[in-house]
Amino acid sequence: MKSVNRRDFLKLSGTSLIGLTLGGVALRANAQDLPQLELDDATAKALKYTHKSEVEGAVCDNCMYIQGTEGAEWRPCALFPGKSVNAQGWCTAYVKKPG
């Protein structure tokens, strides 16, 4: 398992807190109304977001942070308020939905 240094941990913690706090705003918006998350976005870079997951079985679509209509290609994410992520994407904050 890869160890996380303090700086990366603080980035992830801060981003998660902001995302969870403001994520409700993204939930109310339709994903098609939100801009797609760009790979050069600072938060996307910090969380190593990619539009296409290379981790078997781990995609945004089955992550606990994804929001919006199930089955949509682009959906809001609590970690990236005001942006939509690809349902087949992935980032280092990925946590599988329970159940």
UniProtKB/TrEMBL annotation:
A Pfam family matched in the record: HIPIP
Transmembrane segments: none
SUPFAM superfamilies: HIPIP (high potential iron protein) (SSF57652)
Source organism (scientific name): Alteromonas sediminis
Gene3D superfamilies for the chain: High potential iron-sulphur protein
Keywords, alphabetical: 4Fe-4S, Electron transport, Iron, Iron-sulfur, Metal-binding, Signal, Transport
Biological processes annotated in GO: aerobic electron transport chain
InterPro entries in the record: High_potential_FeS_prot (IPR000170), HIPIP_sf (IPR036369), TAT_signal (IPR006311), TAT_signal_bac_arc (IPR019546)
Purpose of the protein: Specific class of high-redox-potential 4Fe-4S ferredoxins. Functions in anaerobic electron transport in most purple and in some other photosynthetic bacteria and in at least one genus (Paracoccus) of halophilic, denitrifying bacteria.
Protein name per its UniProtKB record: Twin-arginine translocation signal domain-containing protein
Domain High potential iron-sulfur proteins family profile: residue ranges: 31-99
Gene Ontology terms for molecular function: 4 iron, 4 sulfur cluster binding; electron transfer activity; metal ion binding
